[in-house]
UniProtKB/TrEMBL annotation:
Coiled coil: none annotated. Residues 9-63 form the HTH cro/C1-type domain. It comes from Candidatus Wolfebacteria bacterium CG1_02_39_135. PROSITE patterns: HTH_CROC1. The lineage of its organism: Bacteria, Candidatus Wolfeibacteriota. This is Repressor protein. It comes from the Bacteria.
DNA sequence: GAGAGTACCTCAGGACCCAG
DNA sequence: CTGGGTCCTGAGGTACTCTC
């Protein structure tokens, strides 16, 4: 591994606010072993490079390219300083944040008013939009990172992006009730800018919404909790995009046999 | 040539220390 | 207490040498 690459690895890790332990766990190796990689004392395997690229939302190529400047940018710093919450910084390329926002507005415009689509269901729809896209096209759509929480996959950057969108009056947060539960809902306050999405991406989102947006909370929960990327990770872990390639037939959205 | 013995290398991970 | 850095030991693999 070129010297620049492990420098870059350390830089990426620090920029993304991961500890060595977290990345070592992601790779399934001990922390000292991970450190050897960062110091260039141990070669990195292809599967490890793929995993790291996925964690940092980079293609394998751009991860392996000796370009010191990380392609993720820290943006949307919170205006409220020195609060615990503002410690969670959004680490996503600007273009992807824009895309994430437009996809969110698009989804909310289409299905946000449905009574079953509260915050948790919304998280799950975004998760399937991102992960299904990765399975189909081997490219990241928004590149958002999702963490395994007890009630479902949660996009790490979601909260900060929503706050930013609320400030800009692009979105409105409302509380309603769904059966006996209090439900958090988001209403779009502007139309999505479809220019930032390709026809292929829109078609993909439409397909996911058609397939999943009518499922009730329990059905959606069962469906997502049986998805391999969800199943193979421990609670609190970042769900690796690569794991979509191990999906079972029920969840797979790619016809691998046609490609043989 | 085949099998046994040995040396060397890489890797993993526990244990320890230090700094904040 | 947590995260980062280092040392040390053992396991596993490979290449080389020796003996039959």
């Amino acid at each position: 591994m070129a010297k620049e690459l492990y420098k870059k690895l350390k830089l990426l890790r620090e920029q993304n606010q991961f500890s060595q332990k977290q990345l070592a766990d992601e790779l399934g190796i001990s922390r000292p072993t991970y450190m050897q990689i960062e110091k260039g004392e141990r070669e990195i395997t292809i599967s490890e490079a793929k995993k790291l690229a996925s964690i940092f939302s980079l293609s394998l190529e751009s991860f392996l390219t000796n370009n010191i400047s990380a392609s993720r940018e820290v943006i949307l710093e919170s205006g409220i300083k020195s609060k615990k919450q503002s410690d969670i910084r959004i680490v996503m390329p600007r273009a992807n944040v824009k895309k994430f926002k437009e996809i969110l507005l698009y989804v909310l415009n289409k299905v946000g008013a449905k009574p079953n689509i509260g915050e948790t269901a919304l998280y799950k729809l975004l998760y399937f939009i991102d992960f299904d896209f990765y399975e189909k096209f081997e490219e990241q759509l928004t590149g958002a990172r999702y963490i395994k929480n007890h009630y479902g996959p949660t996009p790490i950057e979601f909260k900060k992006i929503i706050e930013n969108m609320e400030e800009k009056k692009e979105i409105e947060r409302v509380k309603s009730s769904y059966f006996q539960y209090e439900q958090k809902k988001y209403l779009p306050r502007r139309e999505p800018d479809l220019k930032s999405l390709s026809a292929q991406e829109i078609k993909h989102i439409d397909e996911v919404l058609a397939r999943l947006s009518d499922k009730n909370a329990n059905e959606l929960s069962d469906y997502s909790h049986n998805d391999i990327p969800w199943k193979v990770h421990k609670s609190g872990e970042i769900i690796s995009y690569e794991s979509v390639f191990y999906r079972d037939q029920e969840h797979s959205v790619r016809n691998y046999e046609d490609e043989l």
